[in-house]
Structures are given as structure tokens and as C-alpha cells.
Write a structure and sequence with these properties.
The complex is a heterodimer of chains A (217) and B (716). Chain A is built from nine helices and no strands. With 217 residues, chain A is mainly alpha-helical. Chain B is built from six helices and 39 strands. Classes of the chains: A mainly alpha (217), B mainly beta (716).
Chain lengths: 217, 716
């Protein structure tokens, strides 16, 4: 028999937790939604950096949420892909890796995070393909396939794996059919993806459509 | 007015709470504006990034005591307590550079680094493999860098007037006792290790860290690959042999095995060898590599190799040109190298390793036969303490054990009186600090102590390196150090009381790296003391010598689209009075001028990487009994133009061809004179040259991996 007093305390704690969560969560939700929108609209390095900083601030204030770190890393990887100078690219990617490491401390075994790690490796290869390709390209492929295994419904994992294979196939003048099939699969999954969580990663469809265009002869 | 404000606020979604505007500028310590700084209030979402002029402005609804933070990559976080009132607050923030992270000044005097990461990188691992003329040999590729000497009949590394045994090779921190294949006189040797084994290389031509001892001239530090990514099987089919390797990985463990076989017999059908061969060089070797992740940060590596090599050929007799001497070699070599590294906590990390070598060598020169055995052990532990952001301390201890024995072979056991044995035991310790005085200055003082338990000799070797960043791209470095080494074993057999040989290095270095272009210039002076010297058949440590020079290096990956080249020039002035020298003279391996160009071009459309290298070395001295002055004569200059091309047939298939000394220039490495004059009172001689005027190599390299994507598709 649980004493009444304990029950009351428990109820009180639960309620207060719920309240504080409730309050913070809406603020968090709102800040995140705005930031994600800003990120989707960002076209250049400066606005991506603004966005990255915004996610970093949210992440540091929230402490238990992995998504702000995830988006900060994604913004930083995009900056790495956009930058022109090799040193600068690496610097952004180093930063992205730090964010990703923070995210993995809070959330393990998540296909989205694994896919992002694979994306990071993929951009690392592009910095110096001749030297990094031989050992880092397989690593990128491996991590991306792992992401597809963790969640076969993750369209980003499929897209990135497809992109990796497409690039490799193009370089070697070999058949891109397998890569393009992955991209088509990714597009199907993008269309089927549930939209109930506004904060969940949703990027990549445009990238997939652009790649699909290249796939068509 | 109030209503208008209300409407605007509502439209802008601003809550009607008291607001503070926080504004200002961010600069660094030199007063330059810093863009891209994240400025925010701790534990809130409120903040902004500074713009290109270092300016920032943001609103916040937070009130009271708060903490304003400014953070950017390469700088320390700036924290400042603020009291927020409904007002505008203006700050001018100064960020301090984070020394450990950005624009760091690096110790580069005397060293070349090859790796995929790292700022001081001069060469990438792939550069070693793709240098024309190097044929995949690490030492041969390094010979295109300044500070090295081209010594065609040897193949090992001769650095800045130093003998080849003054260069020591360390693998994962521990010594490789026999890094080169067994050698016969006048034939070049090759390294035992494939460049594909290593992820990073530091090649130091002087003034190196107190961590490395027992090398008077140079330390070549090779770091093996980390944990492999995937299962992999490799096959190589080459004009000189075949290789097969398989790598298997589990979650925390991986094992690789490799078998190699080479035989130059078919190759000799194609060329006109300079020597007559009874048995072309043949070698077989087996390698096992083991990796185990002992924790998130801990890694245990093991490397074991056995190799066997043999050859027999005829060398023209020095006395009678129409006669020849038979030279034959049989070598068995075992090498084990185990290392372990772990981060103990946020301040301490440890690296430890052990290497063991057993080498068994039969050499026959005409009737003289010699059986030599060598056992070597090296144990070493190094701790690193990140004492503060500005200071890292490294300290370690090591123990070297070496045992050699030799005897004329084929003798009955009762006659083993001729067997000679010698041991060398040496314990060493070092401590060294990387101390950043500012973001522009770094110093590395260190000291190394060695105690030779055989001779009771104690040596103290101080080392010092300094580097100063002169601007965004340039830096000036200085290095000084004392270096000791046990004399060559050939002298130890009969003279066990010989003490350590000594060299002192002084190096001044300037380097500028910007946008894929690197320029280096280095001036050095090296003072040799206590070298082994024969005085009336008795060997002691009275030898001495010096080496001084200027070296230039230029690498440019930017100016030519898809092209990449480097140029090295070394000027060397050296003399020694050691071994059996009658007077101070230039040693036979030293040439005054060494020049090399390496060019690589990637033709993307054809997936071909092609290149050439050209090496020049001015004439080397040789001993001529007709000349009253010792080493007064010089050989003709050395030229070598080599070409290579690698074609990526498929992602996993590479065809590689290389052609050395394309022009067929006559190369003379030296002359050997007969000990007795002929009837006319002349001393006949033989010319030491390459095995063949040209060398042609073709190889097909195939890599098979388990196609994870394919399997993956089937699973979906």
C-alpha cells in the first residue's frame, strides 16, 4: 500500500514537471520551427552560419535535446560543402563533427545521426578526392549503408547513399542504375514520410529530385 | 503612437515584455573585427552572429543578471556578466585566440610531414606511391626531398653528409632494426615496408624531438594505419612478382594477412643486366597485422613479418677484368612490432610499444663466407600530459637491446673459435615540453639521457626547437640538438670499449605555405665528434667531421590545373676524418649538389595519373690510388629521368607502369680499384653502376570488397 502522501508528492512532481516541460517545450518548439525554416531558406554561408549559431544556442540552453545539435551539424556540413577553400571546408566540417558528437551523446542508435555522419564523411572526401577517396569513401559508404539498415524508411540515408554511389559510378564511367534506383527509393520514402513531428529532419527531397533529373538520360 | 507600436509589435510577433537591445562589436587582440561570432545570453535562445564588420545587435526579453557569451571557432569563449534593463546596452568584446585550435605555429625545422590531416603536411601518403622513379619505395620517394643524397648503389637514406646508418626508422614509435632488405655490396636495397601500411610519415633531416635517440642524422617516423573500415581482399600482379592480402574486420578486432613473392628472373629476360646472374633476386614474405579496439579510445596494434630473400650474381674482378667474383646472399628476417595507445583521462595519454627483430644472414664473396645473426629489442613508453592549453609535456623511457654474432660459415663446430659476439644495451629517458608562449611563438625544450650498460657511458642530449609565426602564412624556426649513437657493429666486434658517436645540429628554417604552395629554405650546420677512427690499426673515438648546407623546396599544387609539382635543391659541404681515412675528406656518398623535380598530372577524363621525376646529383668522390690526395677525384654527375602512369580501370582496379632512366643516361656511382698494380704499375678498376641501365615496371592492383550496397539493396 503506497502512502497517500507519497502519491500526492508524486502527482505534484509529475504535474510540475509536466508544467515546466509544457511551457519550455512550446518555446523550444517555436524556436526550433523558426530556425528550421530559416535554415531551409538559407542560401549562402553567412545565413547558414546564422542558422547554425541559432541551433547552437538552443542546444546549449536545452541540454537534453539532440535535434538542435543535429541541425547545427547539418548547417555546418552544408557550409563545408559550399565553401571553396580546402582549409575552410575542413574547418566547417571539424565544427560539424563536434556538433554531431554532442548529438550522439544524447541520442544513440539513430538512423538520422548516422546518415548525417555519412554525409560529413562524403563532404570530407570532396575536399581532396585523390588522397582521401581511397580510405574515406568506403567509410562514408559503410556509414550510410549502416544508416539505411538502422531505418530502411529514412529517405535521407537512401538519398545520401545513392549520391555517394552516383558520384563514384560517374567517376569510373560505370553504370549509375543502382545509384539511381536508390534515389528513386528515397523519393518514394520522402513522399511517404509522416509529417506529425514538425521538428524531425525533413530535408533532402529537393536534393533527391535534382539528382533524379541527372539520372534521366 | 502607442497603438502603432503595439500593432508593429504584434505584427512582428514581439511579446509586449520589456526588451533590451544588446549591441556592439567583436574584435581580436590585434583590433581586427571578427565575423561569424555567436553572441548570446547563457541558457537562452537569444543571440545573433556578428556580421562581416564584427558588428552585432539583438533583442532580448530576459531581465536581471545574465551572462553574455561570445564564442567562435579558434577563440576562447568570452563571458561577461550583464544586468539587463529595458534599454540599449553596447559592448565592445575582445576575443583571445585559442592557441590550440587555429593559426597555430608549428615546429617545422628539419622535418617533413606526410599525412592526410595536419597543417605541416608537405606530402600525402599517396604522393609516396605515385612518385615516378620511386617504384613505391618510401626511401626512394623521400630522396626527392631536400637534405637527401642520391646514392644509387645503396638505396638507403643518406642525410646531410651522414652515413645511411645515421638514419633510424621508427614504426609506431618503436625502432625497426632492419628496415631495409639485406644488402650486398654495390647493389641497391629496398625498404621492407609497403607505403600502403602507413597513414602518416614524419621525415626529419635534423634537430628532431628528444623522443628519438640513437640516430646521428635523421629520424623517419612511420605511423601505421588505424582500425580498418571493411573487409577487403587485394591482389597485385607485377612484372616482378605477386601479392595477395586479405583483411577481415569484426566489431572491435581486425586481422590482415599478406603474402608476397617476388622474382626478378622474368624481368631479366627483358633487360640487359649489367651483371651476370646465377640466381636473380627472389623474395618471399608473410605479414600479419592485428588491431584491437580496447576501449572507445584505446587501440592495440600488432604487426608481424617474416621474409626470406636470396640472390647470386657475378661481379667483375677488380684485378682481372675478364674474371668475375661470385656474390651470394641468403637472408631470413623476423620482425614483430606491438603498440598500444590510450587516453587515460582528459590530461594524460599513453603510448607504448615493443619491437623485436631476428635476422639471419649468409653472405658469400668468392671463397669468403660469413654468417651473421642479429637480435634486436626495443621497448618504449611515452606519456603525454596536456598540462594546460599552452603546455604539453611528454616524457618517456625506453630500452634498447642489440646482439650480433658473426662467424665464417661452413666450419665444423670445433672450429667455432672464430665466432664473435657482441651486445649493446642501452636505457634512455627523455622529457620535452611544447610550450606556446603566444599564438605566434612556440618553443620545445627537451633533454634526453642515455645510459649504456655495456660501457657505462652516460650521455645527456639537450634539444631545443623554436618557431615564430611571421605572418598569416610564414614562419621562422630554429632547432638545436645533440645526438648520440652506438658505433657500427663492424667496429664493435673487435673494439667493445668504443663509446657513443656524437653530432650537434644547428638549423635555421623559413617556411611559407599559402593556397597550395609551399616554400621552404633551410640552412644547417652539423658538427660530428667522437666518430670511430683507425689509428695504426687501433680503433678509437677520435674521428670528427662537419656538414653544412642550404636547402630549398618549392611545391605548387595550384598553378597548374590538375597538376602538382615539387622542386628540391640541396647544397652540401661536408668533410670527415673517420674510419680508415688518412686525412679529412669528403666521404664517397656525399655529392655537393642534389636537385630533383617531381611532376604529377591527373587527367580526370581518362582517370590517369601520370608524372615524371628528374634527379641530378653532382659527382661523388672516390678513392683513386693513382692520386696522391685522398678522395680528390669525382665521378661523372648523375642524371635520372623517370616516368610513371597509373590508370584507374575501375574503382577497384589500377594499372601502374613505371619506367626509370628513360634516357638511358650512363650512371656511375663510383669505382673500385684493385689492391695490386698490374705489370704497367697501374691499378685496374671496376665501375660501380646500376643493375641495369633502365628499369621497367608494370603492375595490376585489384581490390575486392564485400559490396555492402549490393547486399543492402537486397535487404530493402
Amino acid at each position: 500500500m503506497i502512502p497517500m502522501k507519497s502519491l500526492a508528492t508524486l502527482a505534484f512532481i509529475l504535474l510540475s514537471l509536466h508544467n515546466s516541460w509544457g511551457y519550455d517545450y512550446t518555446a523550444y518548439q517555436k524556436a526550433m520551427q523558426q530556425s528550421i525554416q530559416a535554415l531551409n531558406e538559407a542560401q549562402d554561408i553567412a545565413s547558414l552560419q546564422q542558422s547554425m549559431h541559432r541551433f547552437e544556442r538552443i542546444a546549449k540552453a536545452e541540454k537534453s535535446q539532440w535535434l538542435p545539435w543535429y541541425y547545427a551539424a547539418y548547417a555546418s556540413i552544408t557550409m563545408g560543402a559550399m565553401a571553396e577553400e580546402a582549409d575552410r571546408k575542413d574547418q566547417y566540417l571539424d565544427h560539424a563533427q563536434q556538433f554531431l558528437d554532442e548529438a550522439t551523446l544524447l541520442e544513440t542508435e539513430n538512423s538520422e545521426l548516422t546518415a548525417l555522419q555519412g554525409y560529413l564523411y562524403m563532404i570530407r572526401v570532396t575536399v581532396d578526392p585523390a588522397n582521401r577517396g581511397p580510405h574515406m569513401a568506403p567509410k562514408a559508404t559503410q556509414v550510410l549503408s549502416q544508416a539505411t539498415q538502422m531505418n530502411p524508411e529514412n529517405p535521407r540515408a537512401l538519398l545520401l547513399l545513392g549520391q555517394m554511389q552516383y558520384g563514384t559510378a560517374r567517376f569510373f564511367n560505370s553504370d549509375t542504375a543502382q545509384a539511381c534506383q536508390l534515389v528513386s527509393q528515397a523519393i518514394e520514402k520522402f513522399d511517404k514520410a509522416p509529417h506529425h513531428d514538425a521538428l524531425a529532419p525533413a530535408w533532402g527531397k529537393e536534393m533527391a529530385l535534382a539528382l533524379q533529373k541527372q539520372c534521366q538520360p | 503612437m502607442k497603438i502603432l507600436f503595439l500593432i508593429i509589435s504584434l505584427l512582428a510577433g514581439l511579446p509586449l515584455q520589456s526588451q533590451t537591445l544588446i549591441t556592439g562589436t567583436v574584435t581580436d587582440v590585434r583590433g581586427e573585427r571578427v565575423a561569424g561570432v555567436n553572441i548570446y545570453l547563457k541558457d537562452s535562445y537569444d543571440g545573433i552572429s556578428s556580421d562581416t564588420t564584427g558588428h552585432f545587435a539583438f533583442h532580448t526579453v530576459e531581465t536581471g543578471h545574465q551572462l553574455l557569451i561570445a564564442s567562435a571557432v579558434g577563440y576562447h569563449d568570452h563571458e561577461q556578466p550583464v544586468i539587463l534593463v529595458q534599454d540599449t546596452l553596447t559592448f565592445s568584446i575582445t576575443l583571445k585566440e585559442n592557441i590550440a585550435k587555429m593559426n597555430e605555429v608549428l615546429i617545422t625545422a628539419g622535418s617533413f610531414e606526410a599525412s592526410d590531416e595536419g597543417k605541416a603536411v608537405i606530402l600525402k601518403p599517396l604522393d609516396i606511391v605515385t612518385t615516378a622513379g620511386a617504384l613505391g619505395g618510401i626511401a626512394a620517394a623521400l630522396q626527392t626531398l631536400p637534405g637527401t643524397q642520391t646514392v644509387g648503389e645503396d638505396g638507403r637514406l643518406f642525410i646531410r653528409g651522414g652515413e645511411s646508418n645515421e638514419t633510424k626508422i621508427f614504426i609506431d614509435g618503436v625502432l625497426s632494426h632492419t628496415p631495409f632488405q639485406a644488402k650486398v655490396p654495390n647493389l641497391p636495397t629496398r625498404g621492407r615496408f609497403s607505403p600502403f601500411l602507413f597513414k602518416g610519415t614524419t621525415f626529419s633531416t635534423g634537430g628532431y624531438s628528444a623522443e628519438y635517440g640513437q640516430a646521428l642524422s635523421s629520424a623517419l617516423i612511420l605511423n601505421t594505419l588505424d582500425f580498418p573500415v571493411q573487409h577487403q581482399t587485394d591482389f597485385s600482379f607485377m612484372s616482378v612478382g605477386v601479392d595477395a592480402a586479405h583483411q577481415h574486420r569484426w566489431d572491435k578486432t581486425s586481422v590482415s594477412v599478406k603474402g608476397e613473392y617476388s622474382n626478378l628472373t622474368p624481368y631479366q629476360w627483358l633487360i640487359t643486366p649489367s651483371y651476370q646472374w646465377e640466381k636473380a633476386p627472389e623474395a618471399a614474405s608473410g605479414t600479419v597485422v592485428f588491431h584491437r579496439k580496447t576501449s572507445e579510445t584505446g587501440l592495440l596494434k600488432g604487426y608481424g613479418n617474416y621474409s626470406h630473400s636470396s640472390l647470386t650474381f657475378y661481379q667483375p674482378n677488380r684485378q682481372q677484368q675478364n674474371q668475375s667474383d661470385v656474390v651470394s646472399l641468403q637472408n631470413n628476417n623476423w620482425y614483430l612490432n606491438t603498440s598500444y595507445q590510450e587516453i587515460l583521462n582528459d590530461k594524460w595519454s599513453v603510448k607504448t610499444g615493443i619491437a623485436y627483430t631476428y635476422d639471419d644472414n649468409h653472405l658469400a664473396l668468392q671463397q669468403d663466407q660469413l654468417h651473421e645473426k642479429q637480435r634486436g629489442l626495443h621497448v618504449k613508453t611515452v606519456f603525454t600530459l596536456d598540462a594546460s592549453e599552452r603546455t604539453a609535456i611528454r616524457l618517456g623511457s625506453e630500452y634498447f637491446y642489440h646482439q650480433w654474432e658473426r662467424q665464417p660459415s661452413g666450419l665444423a663446430p670445433s672450429e667455432q673459435v672464430l665466432r664473435q659476439e657482441v651486445e649493446d644495451k642501452l636505457a634512455g629517458s627523455f622529457i620535452e615540453t611544447d610550450w606556446y608562449l603566444s599564438s605566434h611563438w612556440v618553443s620545445r625544450p627537451g633533454v634526453r639521457v642515455e645510459y649504456n650498460t655495456q660501457t657505462g657511458a652516460l650521455t645527456w642530449a639537450p634539444r631545443l626547437s623554436l618557431a615564430y609565426k611571421t605572418g598569416d602564412y610564414g614562419q621562422l624556426s630554429l632547432a638545436y640538438g645533440k645526438f648520440y649513437q652506438t658505433p657500427e657493429v663492424a667496429y664493435l666486434y673487435d673494439h667493445r670499449d668504443l663509446s657513443q658517436e656524437q653530432a650537434t645540429h644547428y638549423i635555421l628554417h623559413y617556411q611559407r605555405m599559402n593556397a597550395g604552395r609551399t616554400f621552404r629554405v633551410e640552412v644547417f650546420y652539423k658538427d660530428y665528434k667522437h666518430l670511430v677512427k683507425a689509428e695504426r690499426q687501433v680503433y678509437n673515438n677520435s674521428g670528427y667531421g662537419y656538414a653544412q648546407g642550404v636547402e630549398l623546396f618549392w611545391r605548387d599544387k595550384t598553378s597548374i590545373q590538375n597538376g602538382d609539382f615539387w622542386v628540391s635543391y640541396s647544397y652540401l659541404d661536408t668533410k670527415r676524418n673517420y674510419h680508415e681515412f688518412p686525412a679529412s675528406a669528403v666521404p664517397v656518398f656525399a655529392s655537393r649538389h642534389n636537385f630533383s623535380v617531381v611532376y604529377k598530372h591527373f587527367i580526370t577524363a581518362l582517370r590517369i595519373q601520370t608524372g615524371f621525376s628528374y634527379q641530378f646529383a653532382s659527382g661523388r668522390p672516390y678513392y683513386n690510388p693513382h692520386h696522391s690526395r685522398f678522395h680528390a677525384d669525382r665521378t661523372p654527375a648523375y642524371h635520372n629521368l623517370s616516368l610513371n602512369a597509373a590508370y584507374l580501370i575501375k574503382q577497384n582496379i589500377i594499372l601502374y607502369t613505371a619506367f626509370t632512366n628513360v634516357l638511358g643516361t650512363k650512371q656511375v656511382f663510383g669505382y673500385e680499384y684493385s689492391q695490386q698494380p698490374d705489370e704497367q704499375g697501374r691499378y685496374p678498376r671496376r665501375t660501380i653502376g646500376p643493375v641495369a641501365p633502365r628499369f621497367f615496371f608494370v603492375g595490376l592492383f585489384v581490390t575486392l570488397t564485400k559490396d555492402q550496397q549490393e547486399n543492402q539493396l537486397d535487404n530493402l
